[in-house]
User: Which sequence fits this backbone?
């Protein structure tokens, strides 16, 4: 009797295991089928800032170029607010079926650290979003108004020591530009006063006008034309390496300030739970678009270095940036306006 019961129990367990395997295989088949039929309708690209700027430009390039590869149109939807987290939250809450994506700058790796806890409904950008690709970045730099009379970072440091309290402008509290300024102030052991603006454009405008004479900004912020005409002078990049767009400009690390490193990139994200097959396909299609000469020329003209690459590489960079900016924000006690 015992032997019979044991044999029956083994048969039941084997049947359950077989059923589980079938269920797992069924789920896998469903996911594969969904990926093969993707996309089933038009895609939405959410940009968490107003029209204009790098992320918006790239989203509109994708809306023009991606339909050829995926067979569906794309709609760009601007959803500004909460330092970019409002639009990110819209994407995070979307059904993860591969029809809604986020095109956002790296401020979404900083905003969670400088905003009040629970901002954007408690969005966790690492948990709730899946990186798809990092298509481009724009060089971050230190520029001055030529009327300041300095030609190099060394001359700026000497002037700041002779005249404590010089003001520098940024695009706002908690921006990558603000963080660059604070890192430089500490590394050079100088007294600089931060003047935050509500965006890149007004910070550039006041530096041109001489209201402030030192500015941390990005090439994609509309400063390229002013560098060409001499109305602004670039002293150094705060990037890991030199930019092909400004090959003659040294990095802060080259000048003896290796810790003064920030960057400005924009990436494409999907809601967490999106099929890996869809992420892979979207990554391939965007990489294809980035190889187009006309697209590269448009991005370069807007002050962006074309990057691209795998979703895995972008995910790693996103995690690293999130952790690094979190440490910096805590060290300096930076808070948003």
Assistant:
């Amino acid at each position: 009797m015992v032997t019979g019961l044991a044999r029956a129990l083994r048969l039941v367990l084997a049947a359950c295991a077989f059923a589980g395997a079938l269920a797992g295989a069924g789920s896998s088949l469903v996911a594969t089928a969904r990926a093969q039929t993707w996309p089933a309708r038009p895609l939405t690209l959410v940009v968490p800032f107003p029209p204009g700027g790098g992320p918006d430009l790239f989203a509109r390039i994708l809306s023009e170029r991606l339909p050829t590869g995926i067979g569906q149109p794309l709609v760009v939807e601007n959803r500004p607010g909460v330092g970019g987290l409002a639009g990110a939250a819209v994407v995070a809450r979307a059904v993860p079926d591969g029809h809604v994506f986020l095109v956002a700058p790296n401020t979404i790796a900083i905003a969670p650290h400088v905003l009040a806890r629970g901002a954007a409904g408690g969005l966790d950008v690492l948990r709730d979003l899946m990186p798809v690709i990092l298509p481009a970045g724009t060089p971050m730099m230190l520029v001055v108004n030529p009327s300041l009379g300095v030609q190099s970072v060394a001359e700026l440091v000497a002037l700041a020591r002779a005249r404590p309290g010089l003001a520098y402008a940024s695009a706002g509290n908690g921006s990558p530009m603000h963080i660059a300024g604070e890192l430089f102030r500490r590394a050079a052991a100088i007294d600089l006063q931060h003047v935050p603006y509500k965006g890149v454009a007004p910070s550039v405008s006041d530096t041109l006008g001489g209201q402030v004479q030192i500015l941390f900004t990005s090439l994609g912020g509309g400063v390229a034309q002013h560098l060409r005409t001499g109305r602004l002078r670039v002293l150094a990049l705060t990037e890991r390496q030199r930019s092909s767009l400004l090959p003659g400009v040294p990095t802060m690390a080259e000048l003896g300030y290796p810790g003064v490193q920030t960057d400005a990139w924009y990436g494409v994200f999907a809601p967490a739970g999106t099929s890996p097959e869809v992420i892979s396909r979207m990554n391939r299609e965007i990489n294809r678009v980035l190889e187009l000469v006309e697209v590269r020329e448009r991005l370069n003209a807007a002050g962006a270095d074309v990057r691209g690459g795998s979703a895995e590489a972008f995910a790693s960079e996103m995690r690293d940036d999130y952790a690094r900016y979190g440490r910096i924000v805590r060290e300096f006690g930076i808070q948003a306006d």
